[in-house]
UniProtKB/TrEMBL annotation:
Pfam families: Glyco_hydro_1. Keywords: Hydrolase. The keyword Hydrolase applies. It comes from Sphingomonas gei. It comes from the Bacteria. This is Glycoside hydrolase family 1 protein. InterPro entries: GH, Glyco_hydro_1, Glycosyl_Hydrolase_39.
Length: 431
């Protein structure tokens, strides 16, 4: 599955007074038809895309679907498969931020409302990069609640993951063959001295927390104490253990040059640049969760040479092939995003309008060298990979097949499997 995305981050800063809306700053609201045409011209069949949550979700049970109706009907007409990104780093003003305990249940209803309105949609990322969202909002103090404590971090994290789990459950009731591609940042922390080893070990355990909870995996013993010491109750922890959804999931691993960190003796971190790389870190995550994998985000700034982004594309693709040839079932690759972005040079902490040359196209919709390289890569590899894959097919129903007999049979089989899973997990039915 070769993919790209429309950047739809919407965090707030300045105590919630200022919203950073990447769709607005990148011109997508005005140029969405042109953007979708560019996706087609690239030969890309999958698009990470979602309605702007703050403009669509107006209140409990209140929605404005106008923009979603226009865009998703056009994607359906073009037979582009959306990977629907429902919550990307921000919430509508009426919900506040990720400290709000009402967020998970409310978000579950929003996800169900979307799935009811667009029943042909099959692929979802309900909540994007839960670990990063909780870290930037409640540990670094950059976005949304702008807090900086372990308790605030765990509060945000448990709400984000619970929202994701409840959304998956609600969508499966309507679309039993739904597939969830959980885009999450794949991190690693390197100790730069013997005195930093302990701190690095703790951070390397914490990086797994969002996916451990999301997939119903028991966390490391030290992380269990960390969760309980910072406000998670045993009942909340048991909720995650009892809601195992991984059989419906593909693990999305995002990797950038900023994903690896150096840890100093005082426990502080700094950027290390690429040391292990995507293949080694993805193997670590796959060894832990044993799920099919998709490389769901990467990019690099086009620098003064003009070749930096192209070189990074080929490096990432070589890593995908390496980890795949080592037996990890890799099912997709993504350059994120379609166009340049704005203000990621300050991690969206400031609204400066700085254009970051990260896209396949610039903001005038002129193709960049990395766009031409990605188009060529897709043309060369599209027909080779399916016959050599360790995971031969992902049961994706294309938009133009959504009402066909095959799609109906697949949904029926998926519904039967869900019933069997429920029966197997119900102790009363098992005597």
């Amino acid at each position: 599955m070769f993919a790209t995305g429309i950047e739809n981050s919407v965090p707030t800063i300045d105590g919630g007074r200022t919203r950073i809306d990447e769709m607005e700053s990148c011109g997508h609201y005005q140029r969405w038809e042109e953007d979708f045409q560019l996706v087609q011209e690239m030969g890309i069949g999958y698009l990470r895309f979602g309605p702007p949550i703050h403009k669509t979700w107006l209140g409990p049970g209140r929605y404005d679907w106008e923009f979603a109706d226009l865009t998703f009907s056009d994607l359906e007409r073009r037979n582009i498969v959306p990977i629907v990104d429902l919550c990307h780093f921000g919430l509508p003003d009426w919900l506040g931020n990720f400290q709000n305990p009402d967020f998970p249940e409310q978000f579950c209803r929003y996800a169900r409302a979307f799935a009811e309105r667009f029943p042909w949609v099959q692929l979802y990322t309900p909540v994007n990069e839960m670990f990063i969202c909780a870290t930037f909002s409640a540990r670094y103090g950059w976005w949304n609640e702008q807090l900086s404590s372990d308790r605030a971090f765990i509060t945000a994290l448990k709400h984000l993951v619970k929202a994701n789990v409840l959304a998956m459950q609600s969508i499966l009731k309507l679309r039993p063959d739904a597939i969830f591609i959980q885009s999450e940042s794949s991190e690693y922390f390197h100790a730069e001295s013997p005195m930093a080893i302990r701190a690095a070990e703790v951070m390397n355990s914490q990086r797994f927390l969002s996916l451990d909870l999301n997939y119903g995996r028991r966390v490391d013993s030290e992380m269990y104490e960390f969760l309980l010491d910072n406000g998670m109750t045993r009942e909340e922890y048991h909720f995650f253990l009892q809601n195992r959804m991984k059989q419906h999931c593909i693990m999305g691993n995002d990797y950038y040059v900023t994903n690896e960190h150096r840890v100093n003796a005082e426990g502080g971190t700094s950027a290390s640049g690429e040391i292990f790389g995507y293949s080694e870190i993805t193997r670590q995550y796959h060894d832990r969760y044993r799920l099919p994998v998709m490389h769901t985000e990467t990019n690099l700034v086009e620098g003064p040479l003009g070749t930096e982004a192209v070189d990074w594309l080929w490096k990432q693709w070589a890593n995908v092939l390496r980890v795949r040839n080592d037996g990890v079932p890799v099912v997709g690759f993504t350059w994120y995003s379609l166009t340049d972005q704005t203000d990621w040079d300050s991690a969206l902490r400031e609204k400066n309008g700085n254009v970051n040359p990260l896209g396949l196209y610039d903001l005038d919709r002129k193709i960049r060298p990395v766009g031409r390289a990605y188009k060529k890569l897709i043309e060369q590899w599209r027909d080779v990979l399916p016959t050599q894959s360790m995971c031969l097919t992902v049961p994706v129903v294309l938009p133009d097949e959504a009402s066909g007999r095959h799609a109906q049979r697949q949904k029926a089989r998926a519904q039967e499997m869900i019933k069997l899973d429920l029966a197997a997990s119900d102790p009363q039915q098992n005597g």
